[in-house]
Amino acid sequence: MPNTKPTAPDYLSNISVVLTRTSHPGNIGSAARAMKTMGLTKLTLVAPNLMQTPMTAEPPVFDPANPQAFKLPEESFILASGAADVLENARICATLEEALADTVLSCALTSRRRELTAELQTPRALTPELLSAAEAGQQTALVFGNETYGLSIEEVQACNRLMTINGNPDYFSLNLAQAVQVVCYEIYSQTDSSMEHLKVEKNTATHAQIGGMVALLGESGSGKTTIRRYAMDRIQAEGQKIKIIAPRSIDKTRLTTSAICDAIIQDCSTEKYAGAKRFV
């Protein structure tokens, strides 16, 4: 039976990605795509301050008195690709305090040295605590700052954990969406989600199928025995599916036994020989 594709754990819905004062509309869309790829779908935008870009000539202006009136431009949706639903359901807040009101655990993402008492930890080190809280039904948040300035001291102090992505000390320049991707990947990788659905299904050929293949080749008795042995070894060792074909374009008198078998024992997703007629 084919491997059943798993679904992302439900408790990931308790983890929010919070983008504060984001300036590039494309980064918001790319961040949404990075999130959904790793099973996270809750996005919160805090006081977005969008800049003009070649695709967004007139960026929407955020009104703190009426946050819900803010609408993302088309550029954000284009960069989101298949994650438009994440943008459509995004929560819009005027302040970080409002965005974090219901959270128990909030991680401030920073790449700068901070003179603060909270310990600076990597995504890998903090993820177990994040997942444990999320599994318990508690709301958690990953807080990312503005692309140019990062998080302010006040924004960092509003969080109760400090997270940093460790990288090359001589050159560390991650785009906002890239940083979101790194953290979200670390979170999803520690959910131990099954990858069985990605494995190739093994379907060993039957004795009757191999016999039919050999018969179609029209070899003499000794040749049939050699081909049967070679085919059985190949099929059992590699778990390949077998195609029994009537090759119109293969001259059996000019090919070795192994070459003939290679021509007919192939992965079912590949049609190497033109004019082959499939029987099974």
Would you write up a description of this structure?
It is a single chain. The chain has ten helices and seven strands. It is α/β, with parallel strands linked by helices and 280 residues long. Strands 3-2-1-6-4-7-5 form a seven-stranded parallel sheet. Helix 1 runs parallel beside helix 2 and helix 1 (25-37) runs parallel beside helix 7. The protein is elongated, with a radius of gyration of 28 Å.
Summary keywords:
280 residues; alpha/beta; 7-stranded parallel sheet; 10 helices; 7 strands; 35% helix; elongated
What oligomeric assembly is this protein in? Answer: single chain
**Backbone CA Rg:** 28 Å
**Lateral strand order in the biggest sheet:** 3-2-1-6-4-7-5
Strand content: 5-15%
Assign a percent range to the helix content.
25-40%
> How far is it from the N-terminal to the C-terminal residue, by CA?
18 Å
Number of helices: 10
| Low-confidence spans | 237-250, 267-280
| Mean model confidence by pLDDT | 81
Largest sheet: 7 strands, parallel
> How many β-strands, per DSSP?
7
Following the backbone from N to C, one meets helices and strands in this order, namely: EHEHHEHEEHEHEHHHH
User: What class do helices, strands and sheet pairing give?
Assistant: alpha/beta
Q: Looking at the structure, what is the overall shape?
A: elongated
